Amino acid sequence: MAGLTAVLVAADASADEQPVFRSSVARIGPVMAARMTSWHRGCPVAISDLRLVTVSYWGFDRRIHQGRLVVARGSARAVVRGLHAVFTARFPIHRMEPVEAYRADDDRSMAADNTSVFNCRHVEGSRSWSEHAYGRAIDVNPLENPELLGRRVLPPAGARYADRSRRAKGMIHAGDPVVHAFAAVGWRWGGYWRAPKDYQHFSSTGR
Fold this sequence. Notes:
Blueprint: E1 23-27, H1 30-35, E2 50-58, E3 64-72, H2 76-88, E4 95-96, H3 106-111, E5 114-115, E6 137-139, E7 147-149, E8 152-154, H4 177-183, E9 188-189, E10 197-198, E11 201-203
Parallel strand pairs: 4-5
Antiparallel strand pairs: 1-2, 2-3, 6-11, 7-8, 7-10, 9-11
């Protein structure tokens, strides 16, 4: 599947050239469906109930890119609204592409610091479906916002960001614009969980 598209607007645009957020929501067509290794028979959601969302985002390079996410049909509007607010705040996102780019392997996607939504997989260490398997959870900058499972850090390279008193590009903290953006559309942050802590994770169900 294609990755990021070309740069649209430089971040240092003049006051007369206000950056424009662009978004679209489309059905999953037959060509894309045939290539979706993130979906398989037995998944809790049908491909017909998924949508391809395309949104503008600020990259770590301070430029605007177009990212793509596969999202549940009923969550598409909330995801677009949330990411529009994230864009307005100029919060940087490293990359944003469907997990097919990483063979639908969550570990590979996280290691690449990829922001994604749908992946038909189980919760780490369990046989229960993840909220990602329903297309109603997003992981934002997984490297800078790792999941902490006791002493285990996912992705492992995110260990240097386990200290949440640290301030670095792409990190999410309580009360910041990213948390507010998703709270405004009713999505809750895994950074508020008692245990495990999942600083990359936002979902419509709070799970």
